[in-house]
Amino acid sequence: MDLLDKVKQTIKKHFLIETGDRVLLGISGGPDSVALLDILFRLKKRLKFSLFLCHLNHCLRKEAEEEAHFVEELANSYSLPITIAKRNVSKIKGASLEEKAREVRYRFFTRTAQEYQVNKIAIAHNLDDQAETVLLRVIRGTGLLGLGGMKISRPLKNNPRIQIIRPLLEVKRKEILDYLKEKDLVFVTDNSNKSRIYLRNRIRLELLPLLAEYNPRIKESLAKLAVACQDDFAFIEKSAFLFLPKILKRKDKKVMINIKEFLKTPKSLQKEILRLALKSLSAKPLSFSAIDSLQSLIIKGKGKVSLSLPGKLKATRLHQDLVLSCTNS
Description:
6-stranded mixed sheet; 5-stranded antiparallel sheet; 51% helix
């Protein structure tokens, strides 16, 4: 099966694109997004959907202007509409550069999606990216949610009408490079992907090749692990929702957790209940270790005890309740 048919099969199996959909493709000009552009362009008449492009210049590398020009010319060669924007991510205060770039990028996707009135945003993550993501989260520390890696489709935050889709998530990077060579497609190369400064790059360039000596199909194994964890987590999340009415109560921009009822729940659901409580407070997601500390406060704490957590979040354990408050809520 060639790559075009493989991606078409993935799209149909997971209902990623349906008749009448309007799809926005985020394109960097790199090999993955160029391959996905060509594939979606070839499929759009067969699957009867509309295709639009967008590109964001993060102003992080000297080649960024040239890449934006390359992408514009590429869009013209396919006669597709494109929106190109520029944002100097390095000048934004706050989180890590990677987190800031991601946040800015998704805000750009959201605005452009509204501009073109699309209902799907396609991103060119592949199976290798998934394997790297799972390993990265294992190294940093994670739970079942993190082990699930990237979903092949999910609602866009703050606008569930729009779906993020990843048609290449079941495709290995080698298959993509072979496709580009076969179709004689030109793409740009991001030299920062070779820098060992970044942990993800070291995972790709050093750790995965080492693990491949133990299992030549390590990338496929990690991708299968992600899917299995997604399925298991979906069950846990659904089960946790059933307990919320007895446990959670909102009052004056605070969330009250009934400690007695919380302790009655299966331990396997407790962290997810806490995650959902934080989500209802509109707090930023906490790390696995932070939620673990929150769980310990409920289980082991006595009397009135407070805990400060990332994201301007505060937890106070009273005799009957755990009170969660967030200055961002």
